[in-house]
Amino acid sequence: MVNGLQLLDLLRETENKMLHLHRAIDRVSSEPDFKESVSVLTVVVRDYQLQLDKMKQALGKIEIGGQQQQQQQQQQGHNTEIH
C-alpha cells in the first residue's frame, strides 16, 4: 500500500516527466519528419495526465480520511471527558 508521502513523490515525478514531454513535443512538432513521434508523445502525455488525475484523487481521499480520523479522535476525547 502506498502512503500519502509516497503518492506525493510519484505525483511530482510524473509531473516532471510530463513537463519534459511537453518540451520535447514543442521542439519537434514543427518538423515534418517527426509527425509520428509527436503523435506517440501526445498519447504518452495523455496517459501521464490520467495517472496524475488518479494520484490527485487518491491523495485527496487520504487527506480526507486523515481529517475524519482526527475528528473521530476528538469526538472520542470529548465523549470520555463527559462521562
Describe the structure.
With 83 residues, this protein is mainly alpha-helical. The chain has two helices and no strands. It has helices at residues 4-28, 35-82. Helix 1 packs antiparallel against helix 2. The model has no long low-confidence stretch (mean pLDDT 77).
The arrangement of helices and strands along the chain is: HH
Category from helices, strands and their pairing:
mainly alpha
Q: What's the gyration radius in Å?
A: 21 Å
Shape: rod-shaped
Give the uncertain stretches in residue-range form: none
Portion in beta strands: under 5%
Biggest sheet character: none
Average pLDDT, all residues: 77
- Roughly how many Å apart are the termini? 38 Å
Instruction: Write down how many β-strands occur, each being a DSSP E stretch of 2 or more residues.
Output: 0
Q: What is the number of helices?
A: 2
Helix content: over 70%
Compact overview of the structure:
By secondary structure, the protein is an all-alpha fold. It has 2 helices and no strands.
Break the fold down into its secondary structure elements and pairings.
Layout: H1 4-28, H2 35-82
Helix pairs in contact: 1-2
Keywords:
mainly alpha
